[in-house]
């Protein structure tokens, strides 16, 4: 040990009886700067206990010449970190407390040394370095304890949310609404818009939660949603969300899809209808689930964001595939065949009907010549073995189903 090191050890050894005074300075400074601790008796007690153990451990280690970067965090400090995690106090607040404590501890030792007539000289640099090593190690340990507790806490909260949401989604006797609202921190008497969000399972699991959080933020921004939403994981790569909206609320799904693309966010979204009250909470989720089923079963390209309003007629039918297939086959005949030629003819006929039977508009949308549209429409109707009369609702419905669902 160097002469300077010995000097530091001698001074701090003689300051050990002043340990409680230095601890008080540290606690007072932290409480003054971080009001979250000052207004909670449990947090104050743990802070004082952690500060007492940390100051004592640091001073005794310096006095004995022990390396401070080998000392473990005191139990009170670890428990303090865990309580903060359960109280959902940001980890930045915890780490700031340790930085404040570090500064005040060094200042307190220097003040006490000066009052006792000690001169540290160059030893001040060694004191600062030793304390910095100690705080760096302790901060890592309490941060690890915080992260572990936070993970457990979030998991238990997610399980609780899933339990309440499961009760709300059941048909029959409803859960106690007031208790559900308190547990979920979400009002149930307003208008809701449910969203099914999912991501390809090839994505890194560690990034999935972040993608979902950022997708929710984009939904809130695009839809001008000011209140907090409710989110419940349904799988590692799937989340169900509800957003509190107004009766007149709308959202531009294309703009939202573009925002996801620009952000490099691979999440896909199925938006349900906006509905009101507890019943609306359930029915909006059901509509979002149907839209997701439709998007997952589609055999062609599907928009990144799909709303129930865009595919309502088809989405209502996805729960009965047998009847769906019978309706399509009986309406389209041979045109329902899954071969590529029939797919082209079906799409052309559908676009033609959507364009109010305008060959020109259909050609523009399909990026082909007008004569090509005319020829394909005629070919399609030969397969159907019918005429394009005034009522084409069933025909257009069957074609739309084929666009979305592979039968």
Please provide a written account of the structure.
This protein has helices spanning 3-15, 19-33, 35-38, 41-64, 75-86, 91-115, 123-169, 177-184, 205-223, 253-262, 277-297, 308-315, 321-332, 340-354, 359-366, 370-384, 393-404, and strands at 191-198, 230-235, 238-245, 268-276, 305-307. It starts with a helix and ends with a helix. Mean pLDDT is 86; it is low at 1-6. With 407 residues, the chain is of the alpha+beta class. The chain folds into three domains: 3-153, Orthogonal Bundle (Globin-like); 189-315, Alpha-Beta Plaits (2-Layer Sandwich); 321-404, PucR C-terminal helix-turn-helix domain (Arc Repressor Mutant, subunit A, Orthogonal Bundle). The chain is built from 17 helices and five strands. Belongs to the CdaR family. Residues 175-291 form the CdaR GGDEF-like domain. InterPro entries: CdaR-like_regulators, CdaR_GGDEF, PucR_C-HTH_dom, PucR_C-HTH_sf, RsbRD_N_dom.
């Amino acid at each position: 040990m160097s002469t300077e090191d010995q000097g530091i050890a001698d001074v701090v050894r003689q300051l050990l009886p002043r340990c409680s005074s230095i601890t008080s300075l540290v606690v007072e400074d932290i409480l003054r700067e971080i009001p979250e601790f000052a207004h909670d008796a449990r947090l104050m007690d743990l802070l004082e206990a952690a500060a007492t153990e940390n100051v004592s451990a640091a001073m005794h280690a310096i006095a004995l010449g022990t390396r401070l970067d080998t000392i473990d965090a005191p139990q009170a400090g670890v428990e303090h970190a865990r309580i903060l995690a359960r109280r959902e106090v940001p980890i930045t607040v915890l780490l700031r407390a340790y930085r404040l404590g570090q500064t005040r501890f060094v200042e307190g030792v220097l003040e006490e040394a000066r009052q006792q007539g000690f001169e540290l000289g160059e030893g001040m640099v060694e004191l600062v370095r030793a304390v910095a090593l100690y705080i760096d190690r302790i901060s890592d340990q309490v941060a690890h304890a915080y992260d572990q507790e936070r993970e457990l806490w979030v998991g238990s909260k997610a399980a609780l949310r899933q339990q309440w949401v499961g009760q709300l989604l059941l048909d029959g006797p409803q859960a106690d609404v007031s208790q559900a609202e308190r547990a979920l921190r979400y009002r149930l008497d307003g208008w809701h818009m449910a969203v099914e969000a999912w991501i390809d399972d090839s994505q890194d699991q560690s990034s999935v939660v972040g993608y979902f959080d950022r997708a929710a933020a984009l939904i809130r921004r695009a839809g001008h949603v000011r209140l907090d939403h409710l989110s419940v994981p349904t799988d590692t790569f799937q989340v169900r969300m509800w957003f509190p909206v107004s009766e007149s609320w709308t959202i531009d799904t294309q703009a939202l899809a573009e925002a996801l693309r620009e952000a490099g966010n691979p999440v896909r979204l199925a938006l349900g209808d906006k509905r009101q009250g507890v019943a609306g909470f359930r029915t909006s989720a059901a509509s979002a689930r149907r839209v997701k089923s439709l998007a997952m079963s589609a055999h062609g390209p599907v928009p990144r964001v799909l709303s129930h309003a865009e595919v309502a007629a088809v989405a209502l039918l996805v729960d009965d595939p047998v009847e769906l297939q019978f309706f399509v086959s009986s309406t389209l005949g041979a045109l329902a065949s899954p071969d590529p030629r029939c797919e082209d003819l079906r799409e052309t006929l559908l676009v033609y009907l959507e364009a109010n039977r305008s060959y020109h508009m259909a050609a523009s949308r399909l990026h082909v010549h007008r004569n090509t549209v005319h020829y394909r429409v005629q070919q399609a109707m030969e397969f159907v073995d019918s005429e394009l009369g005034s009522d084409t609702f069933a025909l257009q419905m069957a074609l739309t189903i084929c666009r979305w669902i592979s039968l």
